[in-house]
C-alpha cells in the first residue's frame, strides 16, 4: 500500500483485521452448529431449522431472487439468522455450551 496516505492504510488495515475476526467467528460458529446437528441431545426441530438455514444460505434458490437490487439480499440477511435464532432457542443451554466447548477443543 505504498503511496497511500497513512490514515487510509490504517483504515484498510483495521478493516482487514475486523474481516478476519468475523471470519474466525463464523468458522467457529459453523463448527458449533455441526456439533449441534450431530448431537443426539439436540431436538429434532432444531436440527431441521439449522439444516434449513444452511441449505437456504448455500443453495442458489431464493424466495426473492438476488438480482433484484437490495431486496434480493435482504431476504438472505433476514431468513438465515431467523432460522438459526429459532433453532438455538429450542436447544437446551447445556447442550449448546457443551458443543461450544468441544468446538474450542478441535
Keyphrases for this structure?
106 residues, mainly alpha, 0% strand, flat
What is the strand content? under 5%
| Distance between the ends | 36 Å
Instruction: Count up the helices.
Output: 4
What is the radius of gyration computed over CA atoms, rounded to a whole number of angstroms? Answer: 18 Å
Nutshell version of this structure?
This protein has helices at 6-38, 44-58, 71-90, 93-105.
Report on the structure:
There is one protein chain. This protein has helices at 6-38, 44-58, 71-90, 93-105. The protein is mainly alpha-helical. It has one domain. Helix 1 crosses helix 4 and helix 2 (44-58) packs antiparallel against helix 3. The longest helix is centred in the N-terminal third of the chain and has 33 residues, at 6-38. The chain is flat, with a radius of gyration of 18 Å.
Per-chain topology:
Blueprint: H1 6-38, H2 44-58, H3 71-90, H4 93-105
Amino acid at each position: 500500500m505504498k503511496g497511500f496516505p497513512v490514515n487510509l492504510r490504517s483504515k484498510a488495515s483495521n478493516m482487514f483485521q475486523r474481516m478476519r475476526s468475523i471470519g474466525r467467528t463464523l468458522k467457529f460458529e459453523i463448527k458449533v452448529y455441526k456439533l449441534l446437528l450431530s448431537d443426539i441431545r439436540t431436538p429434532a426441530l432444531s436440527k431441521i431449522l439449522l439444516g434449513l438455514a444452511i441449505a437456504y444460505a448455500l443453495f442458489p434458490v431464493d424466495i426473492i431472487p438476488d438480482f433484484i437490487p437490495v431486496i434480493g439480499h435482504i431476504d438472505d440477511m433476514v431468513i438465515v439468522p431467523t432460522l438459526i435464532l429459532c433453532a438455538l432457542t429450542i436447544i437446551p443451554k447445556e447442550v449448546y455450551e457443551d458443543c461450544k466447548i468441544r468446538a474450542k477443543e478441535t
